[in-house]
Structure formats: C-alpha cells, structure tokens
Design a protein that fits this description.
With about 170 residues, the protein is of the alpha+beta class. It has a single domain (about 5-165), classed as 50s Ribosomal Protein L5, Chain: A (2-Layer Sandwich), CATH 3.30.1440.10. The protein is about 25% helix and about 25% strand. It has three helices and seven strands; from the N terminus they run E-H-E-E-H-E-E-E-H-E. The strands form two sheets. It has a five-stranded antiparallel sheet. A two-stranded parallel sheet has the order 4-7.
C-alpha cells in the first residue's frame, strides 16, 4: 500500500461523563490524569436539560487527549480489557472507533484507589491518513478528495492488521 494511503492513529481521547460538578468530577479528572500522565480538562454541557438539572455551560465531565507513542501504548493497554475483540458497530463511517472500559482497575498497571472508587471511561480512537492537514491549515486550505477519505472498512482493516483487534 502507498505510504499516503496508510491509516495512522491521529489521537486517543479518554472521556468520563459524570453529569454534575463536585467531588465526582474531581475524582474523574484525577483518574484520567493518573492513567494518561497528562492533565485532564473539564467538559461543559452544550445544551440545557431540565430533567437532570443541567444548564448550558455546566461542567459535566472530564477528558484528556493523547497523541503519538503515548497514545498507542495506552490504546494497547485499554484493548487488553476488551480481550482484543471489538464489534463492528464500534466503528463509524470515517473509520474511527470507540469502546468503553467498565472499571479502570481492569487495565494492567492501574491500582484501585478507595478515594476514587470504581469508575469506567470511554476510549475514542481517531484515525487519519497522511495529508489530512490540508483541510485544517490556515493558508491554502483545501478539501480532501473522496478517494483519500477513510471508510469504515479501512478502519476495521487497520485495527485487524496494526493493532491485532478481532472485529466481529
């Protein structure tokens, strides 16, 4: 395969949705910081939901983003929790995939902390091909052609060959 057509991992995002501010949100940020080794940031509500007493702009979760070698190392640890198997419905139309880790203590190398308790988190993997930068740069911005865009099948094939995931 041509080098420009090979999919690569752009970023791995870890996300915990708490639903409200307070101690639970601080514990979520602490957990993400410990797992990833980077600083976690708060995510805010985009819309108002009166049933859950959430206003637009309220802090309701935490996330952190990893790139490069650190992202691949964390991704391989997180995939051990899923026993290297993901359903095909985890993949979107652009080849990206997401899965959940129900309990953080299932990850290798992570110990239980009674202050945090048991929390699960989501792992979102964003794939890209070399050359996607042309759509994001400031000067001479251009669209990416249909032949160069990733598809769901491309993402599943990358997961099988590069990451050793069994897609069912």
């Amino acid at each position: 395969m041509m080098k420009m057509k090979e999919p690569v991992v752009d970023k791995v995002t870890l996300n915990i949705g708490v639903g409200h501010a307070g101690a639970d949100l601080e514990n979520a940020k602490l957990l993400l910081s410990r797992i990833s080794g980077t600083k976690a940031i708060e995510t805010a509500a985009r819309v108002r939901n009166p049933v859950f007493k959430i206003k637009k702009g309220d802090p309701i979760g935490a996330k952190t983003t990893l790139r490069g070698k650190a992202a691949l190392e964390l991704l391989k640890k997180a995939l051990l929790v899923k026993a290297g198997t993901l359903p095909s419905k985890c993949f979107d139309a652009r080849g990206n995939f997401s899965f959940g880790v129900p309990e953080y203590i299932d990850m290798p190398g992570v110990k239980y902390d009674p202050q945090i308790g048991i929390i699960g988190f989501d792992v979102c993997v964003t794939l890209k091909r070399r050359g996607y930068r042309v759509a994001q740069r400031r000067r001479a911005c251009a669209k990416i052609g249909k032949a160069h865009l990733l598809t769901k099948e491309d993402g599943m094939e990358f997961a099988r060959t590069q990451l050793g995931i069994n897609v069912v």
